[in-house]
Amino acid sequence: MSQEISFVATGDSFITRPLPTTQSHEFMKISQLINQGDFRFTNFEMTTPGIDKMPSAVSGGTWAAARPKVINHLKSYGFNCVAWANNHTLDYLYSGLSATKHFLEKAELVHAGVGENLSEASSPKYIETPSGRVALIALTSTFHETWMAGEQRRDMPGRPGVNGLRYTNYYQTTSENLKVLKEIAEKTGINVQRNLDLKEGFLAEEDNQEFTFGSYNFIESDAPGLKRTPNKNDLKRIKASISEAKRQANYVIVSIHSHEMQGEDKKLTADFIEEVARSCIDEGAHAVLGHGPHILRGIEIYQNRPIFYSLGNFIFQNDTVEFLPADFYEKYDLSPEKNVADAIDKRSKNDTIGLGTNPLVWESVIPYWKMSDGVLTELILYPIELGYGQERYQRGWPKLSTNDAIIKNLQELSEAYGTHINIVDHVGIVKLL
What we know:
Blueprint: E1 5-14, H1 25-34, E2 39-44, H2 69-75, E3 81-83, H3 93-106, E4 110-112, E5 114-115, H4 118-122, E6 125-129, E7 132-140, E8 161-162, E9 167-173, H5 175-188, H6 192-199, E10 210-213, E11 216-220, E12 225-230, H7 232-246, E13 251-257, E14 261-262, E15 265-269, H8 271-283, E16 287-291, E17 299-302, E18 305-308, E19 313-316, H9 326-331, H10 340-348, E20 363-372, E21 375-385, E22 399-400, H11 404-415, E23 421-424, E24 427-430
Parallel strand pairs: 1-2, 1-19, 2-3, 3-4, 7-13, 9-11, 13-16, 16-18
Antiparallel strand pairs: 1-20, 5-8, 6-7, 9-12, 10-11, 14-15, 17-18, 20-21, 21-22, 21-24, 23-24
Helix pairs in contact: 7-8
């Protein structure tokens, strides 16, 4: 492991349009940066369901779909691996998943986090580089409950889906409030169906220390608030994948797609994601790549290894999907003759609310780092902009930025983790011990 190896990673690539050109100065500068890395990663937050597309009844927000050629356009930047376990993976059901997998493999991109069963979805995928072999493990904590891949048995096949990280919300409250909740439950019958399911064996018995009120779990505490606990079986499976990977590769990288946050502040990572990320490093991972909230979150250097809690967006074009199912139009009370432009206008109130109006969504960083003997030796952060303020059919492509405010924002977000970032010639240089 003594040979030095380099890494480049980006956040979400929600790509719905083909590249207009690979000859522009902006594209070539980004491509040159990405190609400096031995390991070159992005999160593919898209499906390519092909002509037989059938939408799911639920989606990750926008039913994410694009023509298969966008994979090759994304690859033009230089990426050699992607994660695609996220809240859009099954926007077009199992057929969309299988088609997307087919086109990723046709493009010869190593991909992780999704599979025909849980074993495939959770297994490490390997990138062969001149400086060493790198394993990629990908998971998501943000997904519809039916999208989790199923494990196979000797007498039953598994189920396609994502490598999911489930968690439980526990709402902490006082004994007095718990007493009131129990009285309300008794009088309103909110737990009647649950009680019957427990009695008839359709629900498993749970911890007696918690009280379930409808679909919410409450526990007694003198410090009211929300505590989230990762699923023990999922965490065990993730650690087992890391344990395997570190014996099969020089380096292990874990990708985590997560929208969960602290309170109502998207910039703050959920407590259980911090716990899981550190557990991955403790198990032997060399870096954790976070993405999902579409904005930057802080960077932690833990055990001399980087945790990027969110790398924001690399490509973001959710307002230029070509088609949407009837469910989307019905949600916004739009008649059948309305089109995609009408639907996007209605959702965004003519681009006055939503992600398009948040400047933080349209700026991010591309980290470039080096490791030797499993230890971080250099970490440089290159700021990018994605066209905030442009028309929705123009914005979404990355270009390198000289706006120091992007790094200053990341400085503030990282201070809570004890990470110090200097700004030198418009790039961030992380101070290492």
